[in-house]
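User: Please predict the structure of the protein below. I'd like the answer in structure-token form so I can feed it into my own downstream comparison script.

Assistant: Understood. Taking the following sequence of 236 residues as input:
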Amino acid sequence: MSYPKRTAALASAAALAGSAVLLAAPAAHADVVDVNYRCQTPIGVKSAVSPIDIKGVRSGGSYKITMSWRKGVSSSPVELGKGAMSPSATIRLGGAGSGTLAVSGPANDAAIPADTPIKISDLSGTYTPEKSGKVTFTAGTLTIKALGTTTTCTPTNGPGPSLTLDVTAAGGSSSSSSTSGSSSSSTSGGTSSAGQLPQTGPEDSAVALGTLGGTVLLAGAAGTLWLTRRGQTARR
């Protein structure tokens, strides 16, 4: 192989290596999942379907998890005044996580008319991983307290995870995975919007990965210069 061709090949290999390092960065996978709720209310059983969005944002050694409802669930036979309804829920953990995560949120900031689907505010909680790995977050039980009564809504369709997140436990390192998604993370966080990936992981992780990719490219460039100069010396 001639020196010019070898130089081009090395430069291409260095560029591809840098790209591979960046593509290997851990990512979150989020989906808006339809959840069929069976709600046990003070006046009987009601059913409702709501798309659920879960996001996660890293905060220090923990993750802020936010759960959002795209549609209202259940209803009340009487008007619920401002601040009369208090929601909370559980999120089932899977993969590297286990058990449930409790999330809660503010009371309704406006009156809810009678016989109108109750729109749940965003509910949040803090997840602190015990070990590093890929954790799934799936909608669990929703609890609505209002006017001294309690309504419990349970998923009946076995919904899939709304969020899959690569987490890092304190003192550990996250497992690398390449995933794709239509939306999160978190989350994460805060507000829900379709087509938005959750923010995950610290910013310095992305910086470190970008630096590593740049180092690979610089190493390839250095090799190219060395080979070029060596070829010129040989021809002299």
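That's the full token string. The first helix runs from residue 3 to 23.
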